[in-house]
Amino acid sequence: MASSVYLDMDPGHDDALALLVALALMPVRGLTTVAGNQTGDKTYLNARRILFLANQLHLPVAPGYNRPLFRNLVTAAHVHGQSGLDGYEFPEISPPDRSMDAMQFLEIAFAKEQEPVVWIATGPLTNVAAFLIGHPHLHQKISQIAFMGGSLSGGNITPYAEFNTYVDPDAAAYVVGCGIPITMVGLDVTHKALLAQKDLERFRCLKPPIGEMLYRLFTFFAGHEPNAGDRGMPIHDVLAIAAIANPGVFTWEKISLHIERCDEKRRGATEIKRPGSGYPEIKVAVDIDVSGFFEWFWQSLVYYQ
Ligand code: RIB
Ligand code: CA
């Protein structure tokens, strides 16, 4: 039986799409939300909005940290809008029960799991780091952590750093060095797998309201994602789902990685270090079969037809 999957996200347009793909393909057992693309209250609401439209509001979703471990929050409102999911008018949904926060939910959920779980993170790694720091006895319950973040080829929020590792470099450095097998999917591949603007129409073949929602969300996103252009738009977080569901579309390398935390100019930069130099070694996606990825991507969305 496939391992249980837990998601930690900051929806966010590409997180929302990644969530729908994961729900279609994987045994997702729970979702935690973190501040990043927008504030924590907005990413939590957005996660519930997507679950509601996907008829999955029964899935446990718990709010996590509202700011990085040690730094002030930097959001991406310029990319995702004031709501974090601008471009589509979501219906009102029932208020959350807020009975548990992310740490409480994960402690209970992971302790109950009979087999180690797969954890996929698509926002700043604040929740993941905080949970690992506070629950060393539960590390054994996690078989691997895959995260969207970092870059070996320049940044998107600064010339040096990708947004997720920039927002919380301390959390990213802790997670990369925590000893659990880590998989990194960074801009090196997400800037290659660009969703063509002409293909947005394909979302409209999906059942309402999912199809129209995705079409409108990504029409907005195309006009706001800094690296969107004539060749299309990156859908970053979906590739973190592919890293687990379809790892064969990537070329992987084991890389010793340093995450810059002290030099403010290079804050959050993910830098290659010489093997055996004492830096943690993780699995990094260094290339992608773009057509193979999109064949998998569109096939996964048949679930919503
Ligand atoms: O740099 C891209 C990452 O930052 C994605 O996860 C996007 O959702 C934003 O969080
Ligand atoms: Ca994200």
The total of helices stands at 11
Please indicate the percent range of residues in DSSP E strands (runs of 2 or more).
15-25%
Low-pLDDT stretches are none
The total beta strand count reads 11
CATH-defined topology: Inosine-uridine Nucleoside N-ribohydrolase, Chain A
Question: Which strands sit side by side, in order, in the main sheet?
Answer: 3-2-1-4-5-6-11-9-10
Could you estimate the helical fraction of the residues in percent?
A: 25-40%
User: What class, by secondary structure content?
Assistant: alpha/beta
Mean pLDDT figure = 97
Shape-level CATH architecture: Alpha-Beta Complex
Overall morphology: globular
Helices and strands, in N-to-C order?
Answer: EHEHEHHEHEHHEHEHEHEEEH
Bound molecules: alpha-D-ribofuranose, calcium ion
Taken together, the total number of domains comes to 1
Q: Could you give a short account of the major beta sheet?
A: 9 strands, mixed
Level-1 CATH class name:
Alpha Beta
